[in-house]
């Protein structure tokens, strides 16, 4: 059985990056930039006033200046400032020829068409052409995830249609004769399907797009039919919930083989989530995820998200940090790498990790408070209160 580290290496090796395409800025949010972006001009493109005030020649020490014109932002000044003259100017407006300083309006007394500076700053209050960036400077690099700040910079640079990765298109099927919709009252022996909601939300959070979701009884033929119903060219990632192990009714792996997928691994030395199956068919990737909801949660964050990141061409998001345990953790029963749900928050000196009570892989009560997973290495032994532990943060960085 392979380790999680080995499983992640196999996923990174096998999953292909999707071809980029141009997208409008509003649709590029959260996606990966796939081209370098250079500034098409100096930034700022012209000398601009940093204040509301009066533009003068910095060397002109006259006691008073005549106001010879007004310059609003967006208007090119057509006059020049000479000795003893100034121009009324506003923040962002272009500095006129002959001027090299702006005196803040708070620091002058105005008297009709004259101003009398009350004091003169050493600062010029001018944002110089090219002081932020020079024409040709590369300001954004391929592989960056575009957030609000990057989108505003792209807009400033005039890149209205950046080349970005498409959102990986996912299809998802739950399997299990026992499952009913969340709005139904389960009959004896049935349970509500919670994985559909979990997977849909995790896909969205990760940057993928769920284009088809369905529920399938425990039947190999029906599962194969469900997978084949969406044209193959329309999706990149297939997730099958449940049916990952080798029980009589576990058809996930067999269905993948039937539709031509190559199985890369069938098990990972992981708790929860051991019977995780990973397969590819050309540029498509698939996982069969053990049905337990907590196994879903853990395998999604530790393995499946990596496949989405590889398709996007993003660096793997793996924010593993050290935190201090607020409660002890017991010795694990076997040499399985364990990921324990926890709530992490900043303390005075370190991050504090509170392990959440975890009864079984079907116990969903811990998930609302879970914002991190604690990594317990195989054979780690018990952890005392206050011990340091590796902790995977689930609020994803950009
Ligand atoms: P399986 O991997 O199919 O053997 O399922 C393992 C456990 O997860 C069983 O107790 C299932 O009832 C439960 N389970 C499977 N699918 C779901 C689902 N969609 N929602 C909630 N629980 C599920
Ligand atoms: Mg099942």
Number of helices: 7
The chain-level structural class is alpha/beta
What fraction, in percent, of the residue positions are helical?
10-25%
The set of bound ligands, ions and cofactors reads: adenosine monophosphate, magnesium ion
Kindly report the spatial arrangement of strands forming the biggest sheet. 7-4-6-5-9-8
Which secondary structure elements does this structure contain, and how are they paired or packed?
Elements: H1 4-14, E1 21-22, H2 25-28, E2 37-38, E3 48-49, E4 53-56, E5 65-71, E6 85-89, E7 101-104, E8 108-111, E9 114-117, E10 126-127, E11 138-140, H3 148-157, E12 163-164, E13 169-175, E14 179-180, E15 191-192, H4 195-206, E16 209-216, H5 220-229, E17 237-241, H6 252-258, E18 262-265, E19 270-271, E20 277-281, E21 284-289, H7 293-312, E22 320-325, E23 337-346, E24 351-355, E25 372-376, E26 388-393
Parallel strand pairs: 5-6, 13-16, 13-17, 14-15, 17-21, 19-23, 22-24
Antiparallel strand pairs: 1-12, 2-11, 3-10, 4-6, 4-7, 5-9, 8-9, 18-20, 20-21, 22-26, 23-24, 23-25, 25-26
Helix pairs in contact: 1-7, 4-7, 5-6
The site of magnesium ion has 5 residues, from loops.
């Amino acid at each position: 059985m392979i380790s999680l580290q080995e499983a992640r290496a196999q996923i990174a090796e096998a999953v292909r990056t999707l071809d980029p395409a141009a997208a409008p800025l509003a649709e590029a949010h959260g996606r990966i930039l796939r081209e370098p972006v250079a500034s098409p001009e100096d930034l700022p493109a012209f000398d601009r006033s940093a204040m509301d005030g009066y533009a003068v020649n910095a060397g002109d020490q006259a006691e008073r200046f005549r106001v010879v014109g007004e310059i609003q932002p967006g208007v090119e000044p057509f006059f020049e400032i000479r000795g003893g003259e100034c121009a009324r100017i506003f923040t962002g407006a272009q500095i006129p020829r002959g001027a090299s300083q702006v005196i803040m309006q708070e620091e002058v007394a105005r008297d009709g068409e004259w101003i009398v500076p009350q004091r003169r700053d050493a600062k010029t209050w001018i944002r110089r052409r090219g002081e932020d960036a020079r024409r040709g400077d590369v300001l954004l690099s391929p592989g960056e995830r575009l957030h609000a700040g990057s989108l505003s910079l792209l807009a400033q640079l005039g890149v209205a249609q950046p080349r970005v990765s498409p959102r990986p298109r996912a299809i998802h099927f739950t399997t299990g004769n026992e499952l009913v919709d969340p709005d139904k009252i389960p009959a004896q022996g049935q349970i509500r399907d919670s994985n559909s909601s979990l997977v849909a939300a995790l896909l969205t959070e990760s940057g993928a797009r769920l284009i088809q979701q369905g529920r399938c009884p425990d039947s190999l033929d029906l599962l194969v039919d469900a997978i084949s119903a969406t044209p193959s060219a329309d999706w990149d990632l297939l997730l099958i919930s449940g049916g990952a192990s080798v029980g009589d009714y576990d058809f996930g792996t067999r269905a993948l083989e039937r539709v031509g997928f190559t199985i890369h691994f069938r098990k990972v030395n992981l708790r929860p989530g051991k019977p995780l199956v990973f397969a590819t068919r050309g540029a498509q990737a698939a996982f069969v995820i053990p049905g337990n909801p907590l196994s879903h949660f853990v395998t999604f964050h530790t393995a499946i998200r990596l496949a989405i990141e590889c398709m996007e061409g993003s660096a793997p998001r793996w924010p593993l940090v050290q935190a201090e345990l607020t409660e002890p953790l017991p010795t694990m029963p076997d040499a399985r790498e364990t990921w324990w749900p926890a709530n992490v928050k900043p303390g005075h000196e370190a991050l504090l990790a509170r392990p959440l009570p975890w009864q079984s892989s079907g116990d969903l009560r811990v998930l609302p408070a879970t914002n991190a997973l604690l990594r317990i290495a195989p054979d780690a032994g018990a952890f005392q209160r206050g011990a340091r532990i590796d902790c995977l943060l689930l609020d994803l960085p950009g």
